[in-house]
Every structure is written in structure tokens, then in C-alpha cells.
């Protein structure tokens, strides 16, 4: 009967509204994740900047030590080269780690963008379906009023 169909359409409409609400929550969560990833990326960039500054300071110190005396020249040079090797190794490790995380972030951002697009499309389709159902309910209610006259 029409009353049953109307009730069914109302339930379907309520379900769709709940699904849209859930998707909006999911979308907000995805946006938060994206912001968290961007913040992590920024922190990693700062760490690399600090390591590069540390390396530069170490190089400058080593160069000054070389100029102080002829006697300490060889010892300071060896010390500087070793320190430089270690720092360069650390920088390389940090840059490798940064690049891995950056690539991971890029992949995550692409995946998130894809999920967002899918969610947006699904939400748009559900809104369209909801509008159609609301129009159908309105039409059925008009028919019901006409029949009740």
C-alpha cells in the first residue's frame, strides 16, 4: 500500500541522512589525518635543517682549529675528517629517512585525495537520491491527500 511505501521511503531517507552524516564525520577525520601528516613533514624538514646547521658549525670549528697552530694541524685535520664523515653519514641517514617519510606522505596524500574524491562522489549521489526520495514522498503524500478527500 501507499502508506507502507511512504513509511519505507521515510526509513530509506533517514538511513541516507545517517550515512551522509557518517561520511561527513569520516571526511573530517581524513582532513585531520592530512593535517597531521603535513605537520609531521614540517617537523622532519626542521630536523634536517638543524642537522645541516650542526654540520656547518662542526666544519667551521674544524677549520679554525687547523689555523691555530702548525703542530696541531695534522691532529685537527684527522679529527675534522672523522667528525665530518660521521656528520655526513648522519645527514645522509636523516635525508634517506626524510625521503622515505616524504614518499610515504606523498603516497598517503594521493590515497587520501582519492578517498576524499570517492567520499565526495558517494555523498553527492546520496544527496541526489535523498532529494529524489523526498520528492517521491511529497508526491505520495499529495496522492494520499487527494485519495482521502
Automatic annotation (TrEMBL):
Its main location: cytoplasm. It is found in: Cytoplasm, Cytoskeleton, Microtubule organizing center, Centrosome. GO terms for cellular component: centriole; centrosome; ciliary transition fiber; Golgi apparatus. Residues 6-146 form a coiled coil. InterPro entries: Centro_Cilium_Assembly. Keywords: Coiled coil, Cytoplasm, Cytoskeleton. One of its GO terms (biological process) is establishment of centrosome localization. This is CEP83 protein. It comes from Podargus strigoides.
